Amino acid sequence: MARRASAEKKSKPAAVETQKSASWPQERALRRHLLELLRGGNAHLTFDEAIAGLPPKLRGAKPPGLPHTAWRLLEHMRIAQWDILEFSRNPRHVSPEFPAGYWPEGDAPPNDKAWQKSVKQFRADLKAIEDLVEDPATDLFAPLPHGEGQTILREALLVADHNAYHIAELVTVRRLLGAWES
């Protein structure tokens, strides 16, 4: 995941020309499907469903046989999503060191405020990615000038895939801790 910005490459996400092509209805449909995938639902739980009602005392609890706690998963999701967002919109962004920079140090949040702050930031960054996808001025298909072939489409799919995977892990942690009602 680690990506380094080149100092000499300066760019913004590619903009669609003002003249829409004949494929514009298909592109609108693609954007709508991407937004649905990013938001969860359909075949996936939403982020909010996965964290709802998790007792604070279990946020740092590690089930036997699993390497992560709910806190570690939340922070990992937040950090990775933030990195992908910043890479997508900021050519000067420097990614955290992989893999250590994508995980918190401890198993438990220092306090409830830290948990709430992480949840709030996760939601804000997800909304920013959704806004980028939804904006018709964003060319989903153009390679990011500061990347190595990545596109906004690829980055949005990466966020959706990564979040879906770790949301499922959150549910597994909760089930093994007895904190999930089927």
Describe the overall structure.
This protein is mainly alpha-helical. The protein has a single domain, classed as dinb family like domain (Four Helix Bundle (Hemerythrin (Met), subunit A), Up-down Bundle), CATH 1.20.120. Helices cover 49% and strands 0% of the residues. The chain contains five helices and no strands. It has helices at residues 24-39, 47-51, 70-89, 112-134, 152-176. The model is unreliable at 4-11 (pLDDT under 50).
SSE layout and pairing:
Blueprint: H1 24-39, H2 47-51, H3 70-89, H4 112-134, H5 152-176
Key phrases:
182 residues, mainly alpha, Four Helix Bundle (Hemerythrin (Met), subunit A)
Shape: globular
The string of secondary-structure elements, in order, is HHHHH
CATH structural architecture: Up-down Bundle
Q: CATH first level: which class?
A: Mainly Alpha
What is the helix fraction of residues, given as a range? 40-55%
Distance between the termini: 33 Å
Unreliable spans are: 4-11
Q: Structural class of the helices, strands and pairings?
A: mainly alpha
Question: What's the quick description here?
Answer:
With 182 residues, this protein is mostly helical. Helix content is 49%, strand content 0%.
